Structures are given as structure tokens and as C-alpha cells.
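Subject: two folds for Thursday's group meeting

Dear M.,

Sorry for the delay on this. The cluster queue was jammed most of the week, so I only got both jobs back this morning. I'm pasting them in the order they finished. Each block is the input sequence followed by the predicted C-alpha cells. Could you check whether the formatting survives your parser before we put anything on slides? The first protein is the one we discussed after the seminar.
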Amino acid sequence: GALCSNGASQGASETNVSLQVGTVATIGALNSSTYPWVGHITELIIYDSDQSANREAIEANIASRYGITLS
């Protein structure tokens, strides 16, 4: 999969993660308490399949929703 921030690739990962019962998933921090994200995560989209071919359409849809002009 790919990690993108504001339309720019931040890397890729082929890592699959399984959570055990009682495990807390953390989004926006490295580990659960180290380097927490300070701010808001407005949109988080997770697909269960590769959407690389649809990336531009997905970004255009989000930009339209939030009134963002893409360059």
C-alpha cells in the first residue's frame, strides 16, 4: 500500500497488521504515546484493495468536498 499526505507519496508498505482482542490501534502517533499527532485528522480513507489507479479521482473527490484547489 501507499501512504500519501497532501497528494505527495510518503512511502509504501506491504505490511499487513492483525490486531488481537484487546489491542488498541493508534492512528496519528508512533506507538501509543510516543510522538503524538497534534492537530486534526479530517479524512482517513482505508481501502481493502490497491486503489493506485483511482488515486487522482479519489483526491479530486476529497478536494471538491473540502473546497481545496489541486495543483
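Second protein, same layout:
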Amino acid sequence: LNDAISEEINNDDRALILADKLAIKNGKILTHNEMVDLINQLLQCKEPEFLPLNERVFLRVNEDFLNKFFF
């Protein structure tokens, strides 16, 4: 039965399940080093700005972008 179930789960679904299981849980307090490591790992991804379902993780901005909001 487990083989039949696992055959129905494609690689994308497996990746989403694994990501959910390995995610940092809400409310967990990270050390400074853990935060820096996490950001470095994120920036090494092929497309660090987006989650697998195309949701934006963060937005890269430059000084001109910020000046439009503050000056």
C-alpha cells in the first residue's frame, strides 16, 4: 500500500512535504549565526526571491527605490 501511495506523489509534492517538515517553526528564536546562515543559504538558491509556488520571499531594492518612499 505504501508503494502505491508513494508512486502517486510526484517529485514536486515530495519537495513541498520535505520543505514543510524541515521548515523553521513559527515562534522559534534563532541566534544571530543561525539567521546569517539561513540568509546565506537562501541567497545561494537559483531563485532566492520566490517560494516553489511562486510566492515572493523578499524584494531586492536599491537606493533609488527607497528614495521614492522617503524623499
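Two things I noticed about the second structure. DSSP finds four helices and no strands in the chain. The CA atoms of residues 11 and 17 lie 10 Å apart.

Cheers,
T.
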